[in-house]
Amino acid sequence: MTRKNIVxxxxxxxxxxxxxxxxxxxxxxxxxxxxxxxxxxxxxxDNVKFAMINxxxxxxxxxxxxxxxxxxxxxxxxxxxxxGSYQFTNHPxxxxxxxxxxPETKKPQ
Length: 109
Description:
54% of the residues lie in helices and 7% in strands. By secondary structure, the protein is mostly helical. It has a domain at 3-20 and 35-90. Strands 1-2 form a two-stranded antiparallel sheet. Strand 1 and strand 2 form a beta hairpin. Helix 1 (3-23) runs antiparallel to helix 2. The longest helix is centred in the middle third of the chain and has 38 residues, at 35-72.
């Protein structure tokens, strides 16, 4: 995924969540935070959104650096950085299946 695709996905998820909140409204809860508490919660929510975007950007930077290392070492395209172990592994592309001719079926006479 490119950086642009990740940002677009994040924006789409945000708007879908907002739309779900608008169209799936429930009756107001009797438990309402004060205005100051609500503002603190909004700040924390914004911090979470920014952290998610920063995380996505960091992952993209890591993937790009892995691609750079792969190219510098002239490894084949099938060698990729495993983000779980931070090791390079070879994942050969599966070969296309060889189509087998269908056996002829005898028609009843």
